[in-house]
Amino acid sequence: MQRIVVLNPKGGSGKTTIAINLASYYAQRGERPTLMDFDPQASAARWVRKRQASQAPIHLINAYEKDNRVTRAFQLRVPEGTGRVIIDTPAAIDATEMPALTANADKILVPVLPSDIDIHACARCITSLLLVAKVRRVDNRLAIIANRVRRNTRMYQSLTRFLGTLDIPIIATIRDSQNFVRGAELGLGLHEMKHYQVSEDLAAWAPLLAWLDEPAGRAAAARAGPALFA
Asked: What domains are defined for the chain?
């Protein structure tokens, strides 16, 4: 079972878009994904509830809810047979919360938008992941997604220059596309939509999906700290 954490303390970076589209992709492949929604806005949870019974199933865990009748570990339990767990994290998390969110993560995705505010927020996020959460570059667990980009703009060029200084792989550049908006409204993922409508977007996702299938170096031995989910 692989655990994928989508994380960026900056709100509006596209974490939920990444998370729900990954969940739908793995559902289509029969991998019985679980989607954990830690965000109190519950956008991922609403998307799952919009899905039809005829669609490939995605198990939802409302991780943002606290139920005092059961233990936290019981609340966050993953069904047997789950192939992938995708964790949609909330905005504004503190650096001290990152070790618990990432301790058991096989892959960590940091989406960043091409704006000056988002670039600075991404720099702080990466610094916290490396220094506080102790995520090591050599473990092949951490990658960046350039999200909602419009190529040939000055801010996109600034973003690519900045990302090139981090020594963290940029494994996808995803354009600003209405297909993601439409999918969120209908409870669909990109890979469930008509191919001719989303072919350009699917091509941009291919390197991301390939990276997620790569083994994560020595990550298992390097993990430390209390895990938020077991």
From this structure: 2-213 (3.40.50.300)
